[in-house]
Each structure stands twice: as C-alpha cells, then as structure tokens.
Amino acid sequence: MDGTMEQSEAAVRRRVLVACVELFLANGFRHTQPKQIFQQADISDEEFFELFGTKGDVLNELVKMMFDNQFAVAGEIVGADADPLALYAVEVCLQLTLVGLSRTLREIYVDAYSRPDTRELLSARTAVELYRVFSPYEPGSTVEDFRRFDPGIASTMRTYMARPDDAFVPLESKKRWFLNNTFRYYHVPDRGNPARTEILRHLLG
C-alpha cells in the first residue's frame, strides 16, 4: 500500500469515527443502525466492513481513544510526577463525571462495560494501570493477577455508571464509595498513608 492509499484509508477511518461519535451521542450505541453510519460518513457498506467489520469494532476503537485521553487528562491535572494513587483517583472521577453529562453518554459507557469483546479490551488495558498503581500494596502480584482481580472492580464501576445521579445516590457519594472500596480492595492503608488522605480530601472534600 503506497502513502497516498494509506492517507486515504486513514481519512476514511477518521470520517467513520467522527460519524459514529455524533450518532452514538445522538442516538446511543444500541439505537444507531449501520446504514446511518454509512450515510453519515458517506461510505459504502463494503468500505465500512473492510475497515472495521462491525459497529462493535468501532466502539472498541472509540473506547481505546476515550480511555487513553482520560489517562492523559488525569496526568495533566495531577502532574507527571504525582502519586499513582492520585492519577487513578482523578481518572475514576473523570469517568463518573462524564457519564453523568447525558443519558446517551452513560449508555455508551455502560455498553462498553457490558459487551464481552469490549469488556475484555478494557480489562487488558486497565490491568496495566492497576498494576502500576496498586502493585506496591500487593507484593508479588503481576499484571495478570490484576486482570483476574478486575472483574469485581469493573462490575462496581458499571453499576455506578448505570445509575443516574440523584439525591439518594449523588455523584460525590459514588466517587467516595468507589475510591474507598477500591483502596480497601487493594489493601491501601486507611491510616498512616498521607497520599490517600490528601487525595480523598482534595477530590471529595
């Protein structure tokens, strides 16, 4: 494949991704039909299936982009040299805040945590981050160990995402409960850990 063809394919992929973002946000993932994507991106069904295969494959690619950007934004907020616990806490707060912005955005995130293929993708990528953050509190653990631990944490996150924020379970409570429970799950000490205390005080008040 020459450079011109590669550039053309990359442009088409970007067009499809932009179209899918617009459609998923407007209609939700489940209610977006493939033919709507073809029309919005101005491509044939053959081109789409050659580049992506399925609508779910597009969601997988968007999920990678969303999570990469969230980690990058969290890094900008807390700084490159911040305690890994702070980076993780900010990233969690970003996710829970984003899903509260709109019903369709919540549905996209919940679908991402529910679909088997996307869930596996998230598990593999999240395990690396979990290992970096929590391995000091889990001596002898490996990335694969954290991938085995992840389903319990991911299930809790999906539950919090699926429930709209309200007076009974407000956003700030979701953040506090999730972070406190996750820190306990990975044996981050309650006492004598100034990093944990400062993170929770700063983020949650």
Descriptive notes:
The chain is mainly α. The chain is built from ten helices and no strands. The chain has helices at residues 3-27, 34-41, 45-51, 55-78, 84-99, 103-114, 116-134, 143-162, 171-185, 194-204. Helix 4 (55-78) packs across helix 5, helix 6 (103-114) runs antiparallel to helix 8 and helix 7 packs across helix 8 (143-162). The longest helix has 25 residues, at 3-27. The protein starts with a helix and ends with a helix. The mean pLDDT is 84.
- Classify the helix fraction into a percent range: over 70%
Approximate strand percentage = under 5%
Q: Indicate the low-confidence ranges by residue numbers.
A: none
Rg from C-alpha positions? 19 Å
Question: What's the total count of β strands?
Answer: 0
- What value does the average pLDDT take? 84
Give the ordered list of helices and strands: HHHHHHHHHH
Structural class: mainly alpha
**Coarse shape:** elongated
Compute the separation of the termini in Å.
55 Å
The largest β sheet comes out as: none
Number of helices: 10
